[in-house]
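During the first year of the project, the team set up a workflow for recording each protein of interest as an amino acid sequence followed immediately by a discrete structure-token representation. This format lets reviewers and collaborators read both layers of information side by side without switching files. As required by the reporting guidelines, we include two representative entries from the current panel. The first entry is reproduced here exactly as it appears in our internal archive.
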Amino acid sequence: MDPELEPFLPFLPLMDMSDPVAGRADFAARAAAAPAPDTSRMDVEDHTVPGAPDVPVRVYRPHRAQGAVVWLHGGGGVFGDLDTEHPWAARVADLSGAVVVSVGYRLAPEDPYPAALDDACAVLAWAAGRADALGTDPARIAVGGHSAGANLAAALALRARDERGPAIRFQALNQPSLDDRQETWSSVHFTDTPWITSATVAASWRHYLGGRPAGPYAAPARADDLSGLPPAYIATAEFCPNRDEGIAYALRLMQAGVPVELHQWPGTFHGSQAILSAEVSQRQIAELGAALRRALAE
């Protein structure tokens, strides 16, 4: 474990998926206690994307922004909203220099798959159609997210390719949850890691799938064909059950001819970038922003 992260381990709560309502309240309280982001160099506005139902979004528009990112929060598909994601969405906008459209997608178990993905698709189409109003170029739109949000970003790239949806220039997948089968080495051996355990991951998949079998749009690791997908930045944490499925997905993308930047962060665990005082966390967030900045530059 990274020596700057290790002292925090006794104080980290686990994500409790047994009671989604109580878990959401705890998740929101912890997010509210996080340091407020600096939004002085950007405009922040809330909008509603028409749909069935409508989808709330929060738009972060840095001054002199280049490109846009449809950003999808983590939380196992069960927790999280625009407010809990506010610190991270603002930092992504600041470090990438891109317009960030943070998506308040529907949550499981009340709204299982494909509700969240349908919401993400609606927001991608909205962002592409409003590029002028957002102050960006429709040819320079990326998708990205953390954990369950990275799952949605990867699924969004697959679905947009298959359904000839809006063009996606880049996908940024941070510690992605991609495979419901939980058969990788890290999934089998990292059963009691900080913040999330193998039991937590299994519960989040049960909630998200709602009893339905998983296909490639629910679990992108199940996709047979990864060709023709956007270039990717994939980051994994060493002590994370999801580590090996992220690495495997990166390798399969490369084998399908997709350019990939893969960064495996030693000494880290799932979500440890939230510990902002650690130098490794600062580097993780900075590199994610830099990857998006490079991908969306003119």
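The second entry, processed by the same pipeline in the following quarter, appears below.
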Amino acid sequence: MKNKAVILGANYYIGLSAIRCLGIHGIEVVAVDYSWKGTYGFYSKYCSETLIAPHYKKDSKGLIEFLIEYAKKQNEIPVLIPCGDPYVELIDEYLLTLKEYYLIPQTEQGLYTKVMNKGTLHSLAEKHEVAVPETVKIDDENFRQKVEEIIKFPCLVKPTDSPTFVSIFRKKMFTVNNMQELDEAVEKAKDAGLEVIIQRIIPGFDDHMHTFDAYLNQDAKVTHWLTCQKYRQYPINFGASVYTGQKYIPELYDIGARFLEDIGFKGFAEIEFKKDAETGKFYLIEVNVRLSNLNSLVYKAGLNMPYITYRDLIGNPLEPKAIKNNTKLVFWYAYEDILAVRNYIRKKQLTISQVLRSYFQPKAYAIWDWKDIKPALVFFRTKVGRAFKKIFSK
């Protein structure tokens, strides 16, 4: 296989897992990021090349030019795999140009953005008869009255543009308990120039969160898939997976595959659902259109999504496959899970014994790998260095 795989984003474990998933098959993996600082994915033994490129936000056009110039020097057209939302947004903006130089699953410009944006995603979901939490827009007539009558408190103030919101507020959304908190949250978002929506909280603990992880080929048909159940998140209740298990839930395929195929999606996608604790109904919460936090779990369970993507794009696809059994495997991001567990116990949402019992399962680690230990050592050294810096700066 002569086509190189270019990974955008190596300073987080999603990029690291993509590097490993491709490198084990002997593919030349090129890791791209804007700095060496904290970029532990660069230290993987599976990296063939490491490149420092312009920052995706500070110099987006410079990054596009950098990628094009790199591709022009290659003998075979490379496969481009983004491992962060800002990279996906950039690819979507320049999709038609980049497809002249890279193999990219998506063919419809703007679809990535439609699916990532909470407002347009909800419109798509409703159009295709997929349940989403009740939502009110702040520019709706009498929106405060609608919040009190339809949404009710507590509720969520969610951004339509999640990556930008997270970069500013370091959280995925605001949880508000009354009208005063709602007005304050909306004002914060307005001051940051961000659009938000008000959404009902679907009842149920964090283990009512589930995912449908799938790959769709160039005919927009699901060829590979599995389902998972979250156990813990960080920040707790409304955060990212830190402890999640693979669990076969066929109903999620029925909902998720139909939706993704109906909208003509191509490539990897992960739909997050929440199961209503009172009704048992699944609600679509969001869609990740790049490799997810759970990629190491998906791989260990039997689906190598980066390699599936690569093989499909070079015209030599793998046989379709679905994981229709319970492997008992769990994904574990130990660093943030420790922080999450502390808060779950403080808020009496979990007990120490419940947490301890949960650890007795085979694991897919976010960063650690006995066969490729250097990234984990670099990650640990970075965290320790930051801790000492805080201590001695006081």
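For the second entry, the following points were noted during internal review. The chain has a mean pLDDT of 95. The domain at 5-104 is CATH 3.40.50.720 (Rossmann fold). Both points are flagged for discussion at the upcoming steering committee meeting.
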